[in-house]
Specification:
Length: 345
């Protein structure tokens, strides 16, 4: 299979299992809803019956916004101008590149989201690997089987990303970059050097991400118990099939960049009430849905590539868990009840 065929196969695997995409989107919405209600109450309390309340209801009052941000704590501190439209995307990218720590409130909901995603991931990969319906019982059975394995893998993930964000980032930007620019007088050169280090750092993160993705895939497809072994196996697969692995990742990334570019064009701007407000909300939700879709396409296409290289299509080592029929169903089917301890019917 060519890289394009593998990518198309991944899209098809996501397409024929729409319940996964819808379920993950709803899970994301449900997790975000309580935070939104808390923030709404904080804003309502701060505004009260003031004159600023009417101005905020019909548009944006930056004077009030600055006043609120100056005294806000916890979740309220996240309510800044960077949440508007595409600025939120740029702010997230900046936080990653500059290794800014999350606030306590955001870190808490992030941990909960990652736990939910870790649980759903096992069933998701199992469905995409089998490339056939496994029904709700089979999905959640697989999710339960791989949840604790992926929790152990998460410890390895945490160690790798802690090393990248703590050691590598610090060495590149606090040591090497500072040494490079200590005698520079041109801001353009300093900008170029920092951009070059960003490329090096992001490339390292991408490699780690790819290896860990294939570690998860090999865990499901080959029913691996040892997460250290799965990580090493993922690394070996990436090294031995580097050209195809990177080519597929690049193709997926192009689609992701296209989604970002589309959102940059159509992202809601400041202000707006009534119909324009709901239109902006729908655009934002469509962007989130598109991001989740490409995330699943990443996983499905990578699974298809692994199976095309090292396994036959539709193969997974773990048997599909099947719940036994109820006694009533067995009676209807005409199967006799099991014998008692005395061997009598």
């Amino acid at each position: 299979m060519t890289i394009t065929q593998v990518f198309y196969d991944g899209i098809q695997r996501v397409k024929v299992a729409p319940a996964i995409l819808i379920g993950i989107f709803l899970a994301t919405l449900i997790l975000a809803l309580p935070q939104g209600l808390i923030l709404r109450d904080m804003l309502r309390t701060h505004l009260g019956d003031s004159l600023a309340a009417e101005a905020v209801a019909t548009g944006v009052n930056f004077n009030w916004w600055q006043e609120f941000s100056a005294q806000a704590k916890g979740l309220g501190a996240t309510f800044s101008p960077t949440i508007i439209g595409f600025a939120a995307v740029l702010d997230n990218i900046s936080d990653l590149l500059d290794n800014r720590s999350l606030t306590t409130a955001v870190a808490g909901i992030t941990v909960i989201y990652l736990a939910v995603w870790t649980f759903l991931l096992g069933g998701t990969l199992d469905r995409y690997a089998r490339n056939r319906p496994i029904r709700t019982a089979g999905f959640f059975a697989a999710a339960g089987i791989y949840f604790f394995r992926f929790l152990r893998l998460a410890i390895i993930n945490l160690a790798i990303y802690a090393f990248m964000m703590g050691v590598v980032h610090s060495w590149l930007f606090d040591n090497l970059y500072e040494w490079w620019i200590r005698d520079l007088n041109e801001e353009r050169t300093a900008f170029f050097l920092r951009t070059l280090l960003y490329v090096v750092f992001v490339s390292g993160l991408v490699i780690c991400n790819i290896v860990l993705d294939y570690a998860k895939i090999r865990t499901v497809v080959e029913d691996r118990r040892s997460m250290v072994s799965a990580t090493l196996a993922g690394f070996r697969f990436v090294v031995r099939h580097a050209r195809r692995v990177i080519g597929l990742y690049f193709l997926n990334s192009l689609v992701f960049i296209g989604i970002l570019a589309s959102y940059a064009i159509f992202a809601p701007s400041v202000g707006g009430v009534g119909g324009s407000m709901w239109w902006g909300f729908l655009i934002s939700q469509a962007y989130i849905l598109a991001r989740l879709w490409i995330k699943l396409v990443f996983l499905a296409s990578q699974t298809a590539l692994f199976q095309a290289e090292l396994a036959h299509a539709g193969y997974t080592a773990a048997p599909l868990p099947i719940a036994p029929d109820s006694p009533a169903a067995e009676a209807i089917a005409g199967r006799p009840p099991p014998a008692n301890k005395m061997g009598k019917r």
